[in-house]
Amino acid sequence: MRNIIQYVKDFGHKSFTEFPFNEVDSLILSQISYLNLDEFIPTVQDNKASVRLIDILSDKVIQRMCKDTLDEKKNIRLLKAIRESARFEQVHANYFLNLFHVEKIEQFCAVTFQFENFSYIAYRGTDLTLLGWYEDFNMALMDQIPAQEDASKYLDIVCSLLGLNEMIYIGGHSKGGNLAVYAAVFCSEYIKKRIIRIYDHDGPGFHKDIFNTKEYLSIEHKIAKTTCKESMVGILLIHTEKMEFVDSSGIGIMQHDPFNWKINKDGRFKKVKKANFFSKTFEKSSNEFIESTSIEDRKKFFDMLFKVAMEKDNSTIFDFKKHPFKYFRGIKKRYHSLSEKDRIFFKKMLKRYRALSRHNFRLLLKKNMKLKNKKDNQTDIIEEIYD
Length: 387
What we know:
Blueprint lengths: L3 H8 L11 H10 L18 E2 H4 L2 H8 L5 H12 L8 E10 L4 E9 L3 E6 L6 H8 L8 H16 L5 E7 L1 H11 L3 H6 E7 L12 H4 L5 E6 L15 E3 L24 E2 L4 H15 L3 H15 L7 H6 L1 H13 L3 H47 L1
Parallel strand pairs: 4-5, 5-6, 6-7, 7-8
Antiparallel strand pairs: 1-2, 2-3, 3-4, 8-9
Protein backbone atom coordinates (compact mmCIF):
# COMPACT_ATOMS: atom_id res chain seq x y z
CA MET A 1 0.00 0.00 0.00
CA ARG A 2 1.25 3.48 -0.86
CA ASN A 3 1.33 5.71 2.20
CA ILE A 4 3.30 8.82 3.15
CA ILE A 5 6.53 6.79 3.58
CA GLN A 6 6.23 5.30 0.11
CA TYR A 7 5.36 8.75 -1.26
CA VAL A 8 8.72 10.12 -0.04
CA LYS A 9 10.46 7.19 -1.73
CA ASP A 10 8.52 7.55 -4.99
CA PHE A 11 8.66 11.35 -5.29
CA GLY A 12 11.74 12.12 -3.22
CA HIS A 13 13.82 12.74 -6.34
CA LYS A 14 11.49 15.50 -7.57
CA SER A 15 12.01 19.12 -6.57
CA PHE A 16 9.09 21.35 -5.60
CA THR A 17 9.46 23.06 -8.97
CA GLU A 18 9.04 19.74 -10.81
CA PHE A 19 6.27 18.49 -8.52
CA PRO A 20 4.68 21.34 -6.54
CA PHE A 21 3.95 21.23 -2.81
CA ASN A 22 0.65 19.43 -2.21
CA GLU A 23 -1.65 17.92 0.42
CA VAL A 24 0.55 14.84 0.92
CA ASP A 25 3.61 17.00 1.69
CA SER A 26 1.41 18.85 4.17
CA LEU A 27 0.38 15.62 5.89
CA ILE A 28 4.03 14.55 6.14
CA LEU A 29 5.06 17.80 7.84
CA SER A 30 2.01 17.59 10.09
CA GLN A 31 3.15 14.11 11.15
CA ILE A 32 6.68 15.40 11.89
CA SER A 33 5.17 18.01 14.22
CA TYR A 34 4.08 15.15 16.55
CA LEU A 35 7.69 14.10 17.19
CA ASN A 36 10.03 15.05 20.03
CA LEU A 37 11.49 18.18 18.44
CA ASP A 38 12.25 20.18 21.60
CA GLU A 39 16.00 19.55 21.71
CA PHE A 40 16.69 19.91 18.02
CA ILE A 41 14.81 22.88 16.56
CA PRO A 42 15.24 26.53 17.65
CA THR A 43 12.30 27.98 19.55
CA VAL A 44 10.44 31.22 18.91
CA GLN A 45 12.30 32.79 21.86
CA ASP A 46 15.78 31.61 20.76
CA ASN A 47 16.08 34.07 17.89
CA LYS A 48 18.48 31.67 16.13
CA ALA A 49 18.96 30.71 12.51
CA SER A 50 16.90 27.79 11.26
CA VAL A 51 18.42 24.30 11.04
CA ARG A 52 18.45 22.22 7.88
CA LEU A 53 16.24 19.22 8.59
CA ILE A 54 18.43 16.53 7.05
CA ASP A 55 21.52 17.89 8.89
CA ILE A 56 20.06 16.95 12.27
CA LEU A 57 18.65 13.55 11.24
CA SER A 58 21.44 11.27 12.45
CA ASP A 59 20.37 7.75 13.47
CA LYS A 60 20.72 8.71 17.14
CA VAL A 61 18.62 11.86 16.79
CA ILE A 62 15.95 10.03 14.79
CA GLN A 63 15.65 7.47 17.60
CA ARG A 64 15.25 10.24 20.19
CA MET A 65 12.75 12.15 18.07
CA CYS A 66 10.56 9.07 17.68
CA LYS A 67 10.90 7.60 21.18
CA ASP A 68 7.52 6.98 22.86
CA THR A 69 5.55 8.31 19.88
CA LEU A 70 2.39 6.53 18.78
CA ASP A 71 4.19 4.50 16.09
CA GLU A 72 7.95 4.66 16.64
CA LYS A 73 8.87 2.28 13.80
CA LYS A 74 6.91 4.10 11.11
CA ASN A 75 8.09 7.51 12.30
CA ILE A 76 11.70 6.28 12.11
CA ARG A 77 11.13 4.94 8.59
CA LEU A 78 9.57 8.26 7.53
CA LEU A 79 12.49 10.34 8.83
CA LYS A 80 15.07 8.03 7.25
CA ALA A 81 13.25 8.28 3.91
CA ILE A 82 13.23 12.09 4.21
CA ARG A 83 16.96 12.06 5.04
CA GLU A 84 17.66 10.28 1.74
CA SER A 85 15.27 12.49 -0.24
CA ALA A 86 16.41 15.27 -2.57
CA ARG A 87 12.90 16.74 -2.32
CA PHE A 88 13.39 17.71 1.34
CA GLU A 89 17.11 18.41 1.03
CA GLN A 90 16.84 22.18 1.51
CA VAL A 91 13.99 22.24 4.03
CA HIS A 92 14.87 24.14 7.23
CA ALA A 93 13.00 24.14 10.55
CA ASN A 94 12.58 26.91 13.10
CA TYR A 95 10.27 28.66 15.59
CA PHE A 96 9.32 25.59 17.60
CA LEU A 97 6.78 26.24 20.34
CA ASN A 98 5.47 23.63 22.78
CA LEU A 99 3.00 24.56 25.54
CA PHE A 100 1.40 22.33 28.19
CA HIS A 101 -0.76 24.06 30.79
CA VAL A 102 -2.71 21.89 33.21
CA GLU A 103 -4.57 24.80 34.81
CA LYS A 104 -5.72 26.14 31.41
CA ILE A 105 -6.33 22.63 30.01
CA GLU A 106 -4.08 23.32 27.05
CA GLN A 107 -1.77 21.24 24.86
CA PHE A 108 -0.32 23.27 22.00
CA CYS A 109 2.62 22.81 19.67
CA ALA A 110 3.70 24.32 16.35
CA VAL A 111 6.78 24.40 14.15
CA THR A 112 7.69 26.22 10.94
CA PHE A 113 9.37 24.58 7.94
CA GLN A 114 11.14 26.93 5.54
CA PHE A 115 11.49 26.15 1.84
CA GLU A 116 13.23 28.11 -0.90
CA ASN A 117 10.18 30.14 -1.94
CA PHE A 118 7.68 29.67 0.89
CA SER A 119 7.22 28.45 4.46
CA TYR A 120 4.86 25.87 6.00
CA ILE A 121 3.46 26.34 9.51
CA ALA A 122 2.51 22.98 11.04
CA TYR A 123 0.20 22.82 14.04
CA ARG A 124 0.44 19.65 16.10
CA GLY A 125 -2.75 17.71 16.70
CA THR A 126 -3.75 16.08 19.95
CA ASP A 127 -0.72 14.32 21.42
CA LEU A 128 -0.69 11.21 23.63
CA THR A 129 -1.59 13.09 26.82
CA LEU A 130 -5.12 12.76 28.18
CA LEU A 131 -5.00 16.51 28.87
CA GLY A 132 -4.82 17.01 25.10
CA TRP A 133 -7.97 14.94 24.65
CA TYR A 134 -9.60 16.84 27.52
CA GLU A 135 -8.92 20.06 25.61
CA ASP A 136 -10.51 18.57 22.46
CA PHE A 137 -13.71 17.86 24.40
CA ASN A 138 -13.72 21.51 25.50
CA MET A 139 -14.25 22.47 21.85
CA ALA A 140 -17.86 21.47 22.47
CA LEU A 141 -18.06 23.97 25.34
CA MET A 142 -16.05 27.05 24.44
CA ASP A 143 -16.09 29.55 21.57
CA GLN A 144 -12.28 29.63 21.79
CA ILE A 145 -10.05 27.08 23.50
CA PRO A 146 -6.55 28.17 24.69
CA ALA A 147 -4.78 26.32 21.85
CA GLN A 148 -6.82 28.23 19.24
CA GLU A 149 -5.86 31.53 20.85
CA ASP A 150 -2.17 30.52 20.82
CA ALA A 151 -2.46 29.29 17.21
CA SER A 152 -3.50 32.82 16.19
CA LYS A 153 -0.68 34.39 18.20
CA TYR A 154 1.86 31.96 16.73
CA LEU A 155 0.81 32.81 13.17
CA ASP A 156 1.19 36.54 13.88
CA ILE A 157 4.63 36.09 15.49
CA VAL A 158 6.06 33.81 12.81
CA CYS A 159 4.79 35.97 9.96
CA SER A 160 6.56 38.95 11.55
CA LEU A 161 9.81 36.93 11.80
CA LEU A 162 9.70 35.65 8.23
CA GLY A 163 10.39 37.89 5.26
CA LEU A 164 7.75 40.58 4.80
CA ASN A 165 6.57 39.13 1.50
CA GLU A 166 7.17 35.45 2.19
CA MET A 167 4.23 33.30 1.17
CA ILE A 168 3.03 30.60 3.55
CA TYR A 169 1.11 27.35 3.72
CA ILE A 170 -0.43 26.37 7.04
CA GLY A 171 -1.93 23.10 8.17
CA GLY A 172 -2.16 20.29 10.63
CA HIS A 173 -3.64 16.89 11.37
CA SER A 174 -6.50 16.28 13.83
CA LYS A 175 -6.78 19.23 16.25
CA GLY A 176 -3.87 20.77 14.30
CA GLY A 177 -6.14 21.11 11.26
CA ASN A 178 -8.72 22.92 13.36
CA LEU A 179 -6.03 25.26 14.73
CA ALA A 180 -4.76 26.02 11.21
CA VAL A 181 -8.24 27.02 10.03
CA TYR A 182 -8.93 29.04 13.18
CA ALA A 183 -5.65 30.95 12.93
CA ALA A 184 -6.25 31.74 9.24
CA VAL A 185 -9.83 32.89 9.83
CA PHE A 186 -8.91 35.38 12.55
CA CYS A 187 -5.56 36.70 11.31
CA SER A 188 -5.09 40.13 9.71
CA GLU A 189 -5.93 40.80 6.06
CA TYR A 190 -2.23 41.30 5.35
CA ILE A 191 -1.42 37.78 6.58
CA LYS A 192 -4.45 36.31 4.79
CA LYS A 193 -3.02 37.59 1.49
CA ARG A 194 0.26 35.76 2.20
CA ILE A 195 -1.45 32.41 2.78
CA ILE A 196 -1.37 30.13 -0.27
CA ARG A 197 -3.29 27.17 1.15
CA ILE A 198 -4.70 25.92 4.47
CA TYR A 199 -4.63 22.15 4.95
CA ASP A 200 -7.07 20.68 7.48
CA HIS A 201 -6.35 16.95 7.73
CA ASP A 202 -9.25 15.34 9.62
CA GLY A 203 -9.62 18.17 12.10
CA PRO A 204 -12.83 18.58 14.11
CA GLY A 205 -15.21 21.43 13.34
CA PHE A 206 -16.20 24.28 15.61
CA HIS A 207 -18.55 24.84 18.53
CA LYS A 208 -20.28 27.70 16.73
CA ASP A 209 -20.86 28.08 13.04
CA ILE A 210 -18.10 30.35 11.72
CA PHE A 211 -18.69 29.32 8.13
CA ASN A 212 -20.98 32.24 7.28
CA THR A 213 -18.79 34.92 8.85
CA LYS A 214 -16.99 37.41 6.63
CA GLU A 215 -13.67 36.33 8.19
CA TYR A 216 -14.19 32.72 7.12
CA LEU A 217 -15.64 33.54 3.70
CA SER A 218 -12.58 35.64 2.88
CA ILE A 219 -10.28 32.56 3.07
CA GLU A 220 -12.74 29.72 2.33
CA HIS A 221 -11.34 29.17 -1.18
CA LYS A 222 -7.90 28.49 0.32
CA ILE A 223 -9.00 25.70 2.66
CA ALA A 224 -8.44 22.05 1.71
CA LYS A 225 -10.38 19.91 4.20
CA THR A 226 -9.74 16.18 4.08
CA THR A 227 -11.10 13.47 6.31
CA CYS A 228 -11.18 9.67 6.09
CA LYS A 229 -14.02 7.43 4.97
CA GLU A 230 -14.65 6.15 8.50
CA SER A 231 -13.99 9.44 10.20
CA MET A 232 -14.55 9.81 13.93
CA VAL A 233 -12.75 13.15 14.35
CA GLY A 234 -13.06 15.29 11.22
CA ILE A 235 -16.86 15.06 11.21
CA LEU A 236 -17.34 16.22 14.82
CA LEU A 237 -19.05 19.51 15.74
CA ILE A 238 -20.18 22.03 13.12
CA HIS A 239 -18.21 21.77 9.89
CA THR A 240 -18.46 22.74 6.25
CA GLU A 241 -19.76 20.21 3.77
CA LYS A 242 -16.88 21.12 1.45
CA MET A 243 -14.59 18.26 2.39
CA GLU A 244 -13.01 15.32 0.61
CA PHE A 245 -12.85 11.78 1.94
CA VAL A 246 -9.58 9.86 1.81
CA ASP A 247 -9.36 6.07 1.61
CA SER A 248 -7.61 4.59 4.64
CA SER A 249 -6.37 1.10 5.48
CA GLY A 250 -7.14 1.43 9.20
CA ILE A 251 -10.25 0.25 11.02
CA GLY A 252 -12.37 2.59 13.14
CA ILE A 253 -10.36 5.29 14.91
CA MET A 254 -7.14 3.95 13.31
CA GLN A 255 -8.30 5.43 9.98
CA HIS A 256 -7.35 8.75 11.58
CA ASP A 257 -3.66 7.71 11.60
CA PRO A 258 -1.77 9.55 8.78
CA PHE A 259 0.28 6.42 8.06
CA ASN A 260 -2.93 4.65 7.03
CA TRP A 261 -4.02 7.24 4.47
CA LYS A 262 -3.70 5.84 0.94
CA ILE A 263 -1.75 7.63 -1.80
CA ASN A 264 -2.30 7.17 -5.55
CA LYS A 265 0.46 6.54 -8.07
CA ASP A 266 0.24 10.20 -9.09
CA GLY A 267 1.21 11.31 -5.58
CA ARG A 268 -2.25 12.44 -4.44
CA PHE A 269 -4.65 11.13 -1.83
CA LYS A 270 -6.80 8.23 -2.94
CA LYS A 271 -10.30 9.64 -2.55
CA VAL A 272 -13.68 8.01 -1.90
CA LYS A 273 -17.04 9.63 -2.58
CA LYS A 274 -18.36 9.85 0.98
CA ALA A 275 -18.05 8.73 4.58
CA ASN A 276 -19.23 5.22 5.35
CA PHE A 277 -22.23 4.08 7.38
CA PHE A 278 -20.42 3.81 10.74
CA SER A 279 -18.89 7.28 10.42
CA LYS A 280 -22.30 8.81 9.68
CA THR A 281 -23.81 7.01 12.69
CA PHE A 282 -21.04 8.28 14.99
CA GLU A 283 -21.31 11.83 13.58
CA LYS A 284 -25.08 12.02 13.98
CA SER A 285 -25.08 10.50 17.47
CA SER A 286 -22.20 12.61 18.82
CA ASN A 287 -23.50 15.88 17.44
CA GLU A 288 -27.07 15.19 18.61
CA PHE A 289 -25.72 14.35 22.07
CA ILE A 290 -23.84 17.67 22.19
CA GLU A 291 -26.74 19.73 20.80
CA SER A 292 -29.31 18.18 23.16
CA THR A 293 -27.17 18.62 26.28
CA SER A 294 -26.85 21.95 28.06
CA ILE A 295 -23.39 23.50 28.26
CA GLU A 296 -23.50 23.08 32.05
CA ASP A 297 -24.23 19.35 31.80
CA ARG A 298 -21.64 18.91 29.03
CA LYS A 299 -18.97 20.56 31.17
CA LYS A 300 -19.94 18.53 34.23
CA PHE A 301 -19.84 15.27 32.26
CA PHE A 302 -16.51 15.99 30.54
CA ASP A 303 -14.90 17.13 33.81
CA MET A 304 -16.12 13.96 35.48
CA LEU A 305 -15.01 11.76 32.59
CA PHE A 306 -11.43 13.02 32.73
CA LYS A 307 -11.32 13.09 36.51
CA VAL A 308 -12.00 9.35 36.35
CA ALA A 309 -9.68 8.71 33.37
CA MET A 310 -6.61 10.73 34.41
CA GLU A 311 -4.36 9.17 37.02
CA LYS A 312 -2.13 12.27 37.02
CA ASP A 313 -1.91 15.58 35.16
CA ASN A 314 0.49 14.22 32.53
CA SER A 315 -1.20 10.83 32.05
CA THR A 316 -0.82 9.45 28.53
CA ILE A 317 -2.28 6.70 26.39
CA PHE A 318 0.94 4.77 27.00
CA ASP A 319 0.15 4.59 30.74
CA PHE A 320 -2.87 2.51 29.81
CA LYS A 321 -1.00 0.43 27.19
CA LYS A 322 1.86 -0.44 29.56
CA HIS A 323 -0.24 -1.35 32.59
CA PRO A 324 -3.88 -1.89 31.45
CA PHE A 325 -5.09 -3.85 34.48
CA LYS A 326 -3.53 -1.40 36.93
CA TYR A 327 -5.03 1.50 34.99
CA PHE A 328 -8.51 -0.07 34.96
CA ARG A 329 -8.29 -0.61 38.72
CA GLY A 330 -7.40 3.09 39.08
CA ILE A 331 -10.36 4.12 36.91
CA LYS A 332 -12.70 1.95 38.99
CA LYS A 333 -11.31 3.41 42.21
CA ARG A 334 -11.65 7.00 40.96
CA TYR A 335 -15.18 6.32 39.72
CA HIS A 336 -16.27 4.96 43.10
CA SER A 337 -14.75 8.02 44.79
CA LEU A 338 -17.42 10.14 43.08
CA SER A 339 -20.50 10.99 45.09
CA GLU A 340 -23.59 8.85 44.55
CA LYS A 341 -25.30 11.83 42.89
CA ASP A 342 -22.39 12.25 40.44
CA ARG A 343 -22.34 8.52 39.61
CA ILE A 344 -26.06 8.61 38.82
CA PHE A 345 -25.53 11.63 36.55
CA PHE A 346 -22.53 9.99 34.85
CA LYS A 347 -24.43 6.77 34.09
CA LYS A 348 -27.45 8.74 32.89
CA MET A 349 -25.31 10.61 30.34
CA LEU A 350 -23.67 7.41 29.06
CA LYS A 351 -27.06 5.73 28.81
CA ARG A 352 -28.44 8.63 26.77
CA TYR A 353 -25.51 8.51 24.34
CA ARG A 354 -25.96 4.73 23.88
CA ALA A 355 -29.67 5.26 23.22
CA LEU A 356 -28.90 7.89 20.56
CA SER A 357 -26.36 5.57 18.94
CA ARG A 358 -28.80 2.66 18.77
CA HIS A 359 -31.56 4.91 17.38
CA ASN A 360 -29.34 6.44 14.69
CA PHE A 361 -27.86 3.06 13.78
CA ARG A 362 -31.34 1.68 13.07
CA LEU A 363 -32.44 4.89 11.33
CA LEU A 364 -29.47 5.03 8.98
CA LEU A 365 -29.55 1.29 8.38
CA LYS A 366 -33.21 1.56 7.35
CA LYS A 367 -32.38 4.48 5.06
CA ASN A 368 -29.49 2.55 3.48
CA MET A 369 -31.73 -0.47 2.90
CA LYS A 370 -34.31 1.71 1.16
CA LEU A 371 -31.64 3.18 -1.11
CA LYS A 372 -30.30 -0.29 -1.85
CA ASN A 373 -33.77 -1.62 -2.69
CA LYS A 374 -34.38 1.41 -4.93
CA LYS A 375 -31.14 0.76 -6.81
CA ASP A 376 -31.96 -2.95 -7.09
CA ASN A 377 -35.39 -2.13 -8.49
CA GLN A 378 -33.86 0.25 -11.03
CA THR A 379 -31.40 -2.48 -12.06
CA ASP A 380 -34.28 -4.97 -12.47
CA ILE A 381 -36.17 -2.50 -14.68
CA ILE A 382 -33.09 -1.90 -16.86
CA GLU A 383 -32.51 -5.67 -17.19
CA GLU A 384 -36.19 -6.21 -18.18
CA ILE A 385 -35.86 -3.54 -20.89
CA TYR A 386 -32.73 -5.12 -22.32
CA ASP A 387 -34.23 -8.65 -22.08
